[in-house]
Specification:
Helix content: under 10%
Oligomer: single chain
Radius of gyration: 18 Å
Number of strands: 17
Largest sheet: 17 strands, antiparallel
Number of helices: 2
Order of helices and strands: HHEEEEEEEEEEEEEEEEE
């Protein structure tokens, strides 16, 4: 499958600082409403996320995603698996197409189809041709949250559930109708979701579980549980992070600069780290570190957040 573990690591100084921080977080000074996000006007105080670094201590790898902006809108996204997505917007600043590159090679042109103000279909064309490689259909709740996205061509489907305040509670990837990967989240930290600082696309179409992050949830998670499934459909927990052991380093506007996680079992360390532009306070890293990154091993469309198949 194509993949999604985009997360973060940080320099030793920040790691030491974070371990000394309180697990209780400050209250947010402002709230970002669903309408502001949908309209592309996230009240993030112009704090725009530029890097997301995820470190998995069980397997000792980092995944980093990079984001660049033009006129306040997301211009390019470079996920950790090596592709680059460029954005094109209409006069209302709604995304209308994206080109996908690997190096200088144009892999796909993605065209977005709308119903009212929501993207309901992504059409992935090979290069600059009219040959359709994939079609992704997206459905929503009455409140505007993505409930599912599905490719009939590739046979995968992502399903989502939400907390009462609109944060993603779980997502499930099905491959050929069978469960392949699941994530469950808890929110106790009261730190803002860094993806709120990305103005432009309403969903992260560069990943299979495209509602993660770019969903309308207010908070960043304090716990994540990742479950995969064996050939018989039995669940196998890859890791389960303990929210009572999570510690935070704050950036500006109550966004996190780094979050330190510990699993329920074992002694591995997990990090998520972030850098921003137009933000004060600590940053996850001052320059691109030399990191061991995990690459996807096969070719489905994007990447499943939290695990490479």
């Amino acid at each position: 499958m194509k993949t999604v573990l985009n997360r973060l690591s940080i320099f030793l100084l920040l790691a030491v600082f974070a371990l000394g921080c309180k697990k209780e977080s400050p209250l947010r000074e402002t709230e970002t409403t669903k309408d502001e996000i949908v309209a592309g006007k996230a009240a993030a105080g112009n704090c725009r996320m530029t890097m997301y670094d995820y470190y998995n201590g069980d397997e000792d790898y980092h995944n980093l995603d990079y984001y660049t902006y033009k006129n306040g809108l997301l211009a390019e996204c470079s996920p950790y698996y090596g592709w680059k997505f460029t954005m094109e917007y209409d006069q209302k600043n709604k995304i209308k197409s994206s080109k996908v590159y690997e190096g200088d090679v144009l892999l796909y042109t993605i065209v977005f189809e709308y119903k009212k103000d929501k993207v309901v279909k992504e059409v992935w064309y090979l290069g600059n041709t009219s040959t359709v490689d994939d079609e992704v259909f997206i459905q929503y709740t009455n409140q505007g949250s993505i409930t599912s996205s599905e490719s009939f061509i590739y046979g995968y489907r992502a399903e989502y559930t939400y907390t009462d305040n609109g944060s993603i509670e779980s997502w499930l990837i099905l491959d050929g109708g069978l469960p392949a990967l699941r994530a469950d989240y808890k929110y106790t930290g009261n730190f803002r979701n860094p993806y709120l600082g990305i103005v432009g696309p309403d969903h992260a179409f560069w990943f299979t579980n495209s509602a993660f992050g770019r969903g309308i949830g207010q908070e960043w998670y304090s716990s994540e549980k990742i479950t995969t499934y064996d050939p018989s459909g039995n669940p196998v927990v890859l890791y389960d992070l303990d929210p009572t052991k999570t510690s935070w380093v704050a950036a500006d506007k109550h966004f996190p600069a780094m979050v330190n996680y510990s699993p329920m079992k074992g002694s591995s360390v997990f990090y998520t780290g972030f850098t921003y532009e137009n933000c004060n306070g600590p940053q996850a890293a001052s320059s691109k570190p030399v990191l061991k990154q995990r690459k996807p091993v096969n070719k489905i469309h994007r990447i499943l957040h939290g695990y490479n198949k």
